[in-house]
Write a structure and sequence with these properties.
The chain is 37% helix and 23% strand. It has helices at residues 48-62, 86-99, 119-128, 142-147, 154-167, 184-197, 214-217, 225-241, 260-266, 297-302, 318-326, 337-342, 347-358, 373-377, 379-384, and strands spanning 19-25, 27-28, 40-41, 71-78, 102-112, 132-138, 171-177, 201-206, 245-248, 251-253, 270-274, 279-284, 287-293, 307-312, 333-334, 362-364, 368-371. The longest helix is centred in the middle third of the chain and has 17 residues, at 225-241. Bound molecules: iron/sulfur cluster (SF4).
Length: 389
C-alpha cells in the first residue's frame, strides 16, 4: 500500500483570511522630491474613463481566484486619487460593487492631496460611496511644506481638513516629522494642529531618504538621529495625551477608528491589487500567492494583460513576511494568527520568538505576542531573526 504523506512545512490554511481591495491611481500634480511611490507627474487631461475601465478589467481577471469572498475594505491610493472626478470614483465603486460583495459597513478610503480638493469634490466622493478620507497634509508649516516640495501651503492644508470634515466623520491626516530644518517645537506644533483639527486618525511618519528620489541624489540636511528619536517620543506622548491609541508603528486612532484596511495588511490578510504598479496577495487552501501590475501608466493602459508578476510565496519566506507586518502592531497578535494566516506550524517560529523574548524584544502570554517598547525601537533587528526561520 502506498501512503502519500504531506511534506513537512507545506502550507495548509483551514480558513481563508479577510479580503480587501487596493486600487492605485498613479498620477500627481507634481512629483515630491522625497517620494518613491509609483506616482507620475500628470501631463494634460487624465485618461479617467479609460483607466477606470482598465481597473475593472483587472478586477474581473482576479474574480475566479476569490469567488464568493466578500471585500472587507477598499483603499483608493496613489499617487493622488483626488485628481479623479467624483463621477469617475462613482463609476469605479459602482463597478466594484457590481462584481463583488462589500461587507456591510466596509471601510472605503480615498487618498486626497490638500492641493486638489475643495468642498464640492469631497461631497461628490462621499456620494460615490467613499466613507473615509486620508489627507496627505504632511505639515501645517509653510516652511516645511516648501522644503518638501508640496503643492499646497498651510492655509490650503487647514482648508482641506475643514472641507473633508464637512463631508466625512472618518478622516486620517498624514504627517511627517524629521523634516529639513525642523525643530522639536515645530514638529510638536504640527501634531497639535492635527489634534485641534479633531480628526479621528493620524499617521505620523519620519522622513527617510529613499533610493530613486531627488532627496536621495541631493540629500537635504535633516535633523540628527537623536533629535528625530525625541520627535518620535513627542509624537507618541502628545497623541496619547490627546486620547489617540497608538496601535501601529506610525498609526494613532481615536477608539473605534483604527484603519480597517491597513489592519488587514498588518494581520496578514489578503488583498487584490488593481491599477498601475499595484500589488496583491491572495491565499488558497494550499498556497499563498502574490501579484503585481505593470508600473508605467502608459504601458499599463496599452497592454491587454496588466499582470507584471505573479508568484507563490515560498513557505520559508512566510515567517519573515508575516512578522514584518504583525510585529508593527503595538498590541501584537493572537498566538494562533501565524498558523491561521501563514498556514504553517507555530513551531516554525518558536526558536526566534523564544530568543526575542529572552532579549526583551517581545512579550507574550498564552493569548498574545507583542513587541516590547524596546522591540518596537529595534524592529528591524527583531525581524532579521525570521529570515532564517
Ligand atoms: S503627492 Fe504623494 S504620491 Fe504624489 S508625489 Fe507627492 S508624496 Fe508622492
Amino acid at each position: 500500500m502506498q501512503i502519500f504523506l504531506e511534506k513537512p512545512n507545506a502550507v495548509r490554511l483551514a480558513t481563508l483570511p479577510p479580503l480587501a481591495l487596493y486600487v492605485h491611481v498613479p498620477w500627481c500634480v507634481r512629483k515630491c522630491p522625497y517620494c518613491d511611490f509609483n506616482s507620475h507627474e500628470r501631463a494634460g487631461e487624465l485618461p479617467e474613463r479609460e483607466y477606470v475601465d482598465r481597473l475593472l478589467r483587472d478586477l474581473e481577471g482576479l474574480l475566479p481566484s476569490v469567488w464568493g469572498r466578500p471585500l472587507v475594505s477598499v483603499f483608493i491610493g496613489g499617487g493622488t486619487p483626488s485628481l479623479f472626478a467624483p463621477e469617475s470614483i462613482d463609476r469605479l465603486l459602482s463597478g466594484v460593487r457590481a462584481r463583488m460583495r462589500l461587507e456591510p459597513g466596509a471601510e472605503v478610503t480615498l487618498e486626497a492631496n490638500p492641493g486638489t480638493v475643495e468642498a464640492g469634490r469631497f461631497a461628490g466622493f462621499r456620494q460615490a460611496g467613499v466613507n473615509r478620507i486620508s489627507l496627505g497634509v504632511q505639515s501645517f508649516d509653510d516652511r516645511m511644506l516648501a522644503a518638501l516640495g508640496r503643492i499646497h501651503g498651510a492655509v490650503e492644508a487647514r482648508r482641506a481638513v475643514d472641507a473633508a470634515a464637512a463631508s466625512f466623520d472618518n478622516v486620517n491626516l498624514d504627517l511627517m516629522y524629521g523634516l529639513p530644518g525642523q525643530t522639536l517645537e515645530m514638529a510638536k506644533a504640527d501634531i497639535e494642529g492635527a489634534v485641534r483639527a479633531g480628526v479621528p486618525h493620524v499617521s505620523a511618519y519620519q522622513l527617510t531618504l529613499e533610493p530613486n528620489t531627488v532627496f536621495w541624489s541631493r540629500p537635504p540636511k535633516l535633523p540628527e538621529h537623536d533629535a528625530c528619536a525625541d520627535m518620535q517620543v513627542m509624537v507618541e506622548d502628545a497623541l496619547g495625551a490627546a486620547g489617540y491609541e497608538h496601535y501601529e508603528t506610525s498609526a494613532f486612532a481615536r477608539p473605534g477608528r483604527r484603519c480597517a484596511h491597513n489592519l488587514n495588511y498588518w494581520q496578514f490578510g489578503d488583498y487584490l491589487g488593481i491599477g498601475a504598479g499595484a500589488h496583491g496577495k491572495v491565499s488558497f487552501p494550499d498556497r499563498i500567492t502574490r501579484h503585481a501590475r505593470i508600473k508605467q501608466p502608459k504601458e499599463y493602459l496599452a497592454r491587454d494583460d496588466t499582470l507584471a508578476e505573479q508568484s507563490v510565496v515560498a513557505p520559508k519566506e512566510l515567517p519573515f513576511e508575516f512578522m514584518l507586518n504583525a510585529l508593527r502592531l503595538v498590541e501584537g497578535f493572537p498566538v494562533t494568527l501565524f498558523s491561521d494566516r501563514a498556514g504553517l506550524p507555530a513551531a516554525m517560529v518558536e526558536g526566534p520568538l523564544a530568543s526575542l523574548e529572552q532579549e526583551g524584544l517581545i512579550e507574550r502570554d498564552w493569548q498574545r505576542i507583542r513587541p516590547s517598547p524596546r522591540g518596537r525601537r529595534f524592529l528591524n533587528e527583531a525581524l532579521e531573526r525570521f529570515l532564517a526561520a
